[in-house]
Specification:
A 9-stranded mixed beta sheet has the order 2-1-3-4-11-10-9-6-7, sandwiched between helices. The chain has a 5-stranded parallel beta sheet with strand order 14-13-12-15-18, with helices on both faces. It contains 15 helices and 22 strands. The chain is of the alpha/beta class. α5 crosses α6, α5 crosses α12 and α6 packs across α12. It is globular, with a radius of gyration of 26 Å. Bound molecules: xanthosine-5'-monophosphate.
């Protein structure tokens, strides 16, 4: 929480799309945080001092016993409040209106008609398309409120008490299916709450440098650098803040893509002059993985060895007081579960998880308040080359989970060669930035082929490319057929050991992005 910002508080009632409210506000240049409803009481609000409050949607009915409510203090702060969906219903129930449970759920696209004048709906057309998703409906609005928009099924699609600056909408302005939603949120935070929208990456950059200096003092910091976007941004930011007090440790597991280690060393050690220990642990990892086929065992072996190597290197450096990690905001948000209790969804999926306790280090997490696309924006602000900022995610276990079955040095080499060609073709076609992640998988399947006059009996390579916004769901990328044909031909001609190429068209769910 940062008291210097003109911050907006989003009280979470457990909607699937609460995070989108935060994203939309950040896009407008307004800093905001999401907190679960049951953590927001009078004392919290007093300390937090939000400039505006948004009540999110949620899966409950206000008629269910024990269904969540906003703390009454939220309505006594004297700041604008916007209720969204369930937020509208609880606002009405709490301020003296009437909400009825309805058997008829309204779900999906709806048309609203703007009636009356309100700064909340300024700039909207007389009729707009919105996205509704609600069961309960408001039947009587509290005193002081007026209807400002209606739809066929929701006579109180949007309501306002202009005097107290309380607003509520039955639909979800934060989702892309409500095209006018951005304008509504902009009206609320800029015009109604009077915020300036001055939260920029340049400002965040400078503030974060000061915060890191204040936290770290003269302490020593180590940072696990994987070469991915998040850890690269952390490393450069920290180096700017604390210079030589930072040492980065990069572990080459022998399961990286071709040329990866050289790129990381070039950029961080040679270009930025960041103290960097690059550990060549390929032999160690590949020996430990010999004969192992089970995906979970592979992951466990790699995770365990990674920590051992990292710990040994940190020990050689004489230890450190802090461990820097690229934890992002979606990893730290606590969301509300369906039964109303807080469900802690803090993930500890980072490769060096478990180390801080073992080595008695405190964490430095300068990206804790950012979404992935904001991390990329910060990377650009820091001057990181586009080739690092726009990189596709790469999993900690590396190529090990892209070689189903046993991992051999030969298999790693074949996969590296094929993957380099695949990515090269993607770059040449100008498609890299349209894809969330693209990679190859070397299958433990041999098939018969014919090359020249020779019979071949070689392995199958699967190509994978997906679009996604957060890696939680994904769809396969619709490459033109010529692209796939050209790439397959190049791989089979140039990589010994592969004589057949297939393209994976599975979405997530039901598949996952990686094969293991
Ligand atoms: P799945 O395969 O679960 O992957 O659909 C979702 C995203 O997570 C990445 N991934 C990992 N990243 N360590 C990581 O740092 C891991 O163990 C790991 N496993 C999967 C995957 O590449 C995709 O971006």
């Amino acid at each position: 929480m940062s008291a210097d910002h003109q911050q907006v508080l989003i009280i979470d009632f457990g909607s699937q799309v609460t995070q989108l409210i935060a994203r939309r506000l950040r896009e407008i240049g307004v800093y905001c945080e999401i907190h679960p409803y049951n953590k927001v009481d009078g004392a919290f609000l007093n300390e937090y001092q939000p400039k505006a409050v948004i009540l999110s949607g949620g899966p409950n009915s206000v008629h269910w016993e024990g269904s969540p409510r906003a703390d009454a203090a939220a309505f006594q702060l004297g700041v604008p409040v916007l209720g969204i969906c369930y937020g509208e219903q609880t606002m009405c129930a709490q301020l003296g209106g009437a909400v009825t449970a309805s058997d008829h759920r309204e779900f999906g696209r709806a048309e609203i008609e703007i009636i009356g004048q309100s700064p909340l709906l300024a700039g909207l057309k007389p009729n707009e398309t919105v996205w509704m998703s609600h069961g309960d409906r408001v039947d009587a609005i509290p005193e002081g409120f007026a209807v400002i928009a209606k739809s066929a099924n929701a006579p109180f699609a949007a309501i306002a008490d202009e005097q107290r600056q309380f607003y509520a909408v039955q639909f979800h302005p934060e989702v892309a299916h409500t095209p006018c939603g951005g304008q509504i949120l902009r009206n609320f935070v800029l015009d109604i709450a009077g915020l300036s929208g001055d939260w920029t990456m340049a400002a965040f950059h400078l503030e974060e440098i000061e915060k890191v200096r204040a936290q770290v003092g003269k302490g020593r910091v180590i940072c696990g650098l994987s070469g991915g976007v998040d850890s690269s941004v952390v490393a450069v930011l920290l180096h700017e803040a604390i210079g030589e007090q930072l040492t980065c440790v990069y572990v080459d597991t022998g399961l990286m893509r071709a040329g990866e280690t050289a790129q990381v060393v070039d950029l961080f050690r040679d270009h930025y002059n960041i103290p960097l220990v690059a550990v060549d642990a390929g032999g160690l990892f590949l020996d430990a993985l010999a004969g192992v086929s089970d995906p979970e065992r592979k992951r466990k072996i790699i995770g365990g060895l990674f920590i051992d190597v990292f710990e040994a290197e940190a020990g050689k450096l004489g230890g450190a007081d802090f461990l820097a990690q690229g934890t992002l905001y979606p990893d730290v948000i606590e969301s509300v579960s369906f039964d109303g209790g807080p469900s802690v969804t803090i993930k500890s999926h980072h490769n060096v998880g478990g180390l801080p306790e073992r080595m008695n280090m405190q964490l430095v997490e300068p990206l804790r308040e950012l979404f992935k696309d904001e991390v990329r924006a910060l990377g650009r602000e820091l001057g990181l080359p586009e080739s690092f900022v726009g990189r596709h995610p790469f999993p900690g276990p590396g190529l090990a989970i892209r070689i189903p079955g046993e991992i051999t040095r030969e298999a790693v080499e074949i996969l590296q060669k094929a993957d380099t060609i695949y990515l090269d073709e993607i770059h040449k076609a100008g498609l890299y930035d349209d894809i969330w992640q693209a990679f190859s998988v070397l299958l433990p399947v041999h098939t018969v082929g014919v090359m020249g006059d020779e019979r071949t009996y070689d392995q199958v390579l699967a190509l994978r490319a997906v679009t996604s916004t957060d890696g939680m769901t994904a769809d396969y990328f619709p490459f033109p057929h010529e692209f796939l044909g050209r790439t397959a031909t190049r791989i089979i001609n140039e990589v010994r050991g592969i004589n057949r190429v297939v393209y994976d068209i599975t979405s997530k769910p039901p598949g996952t992005i990686e094969w293991e």
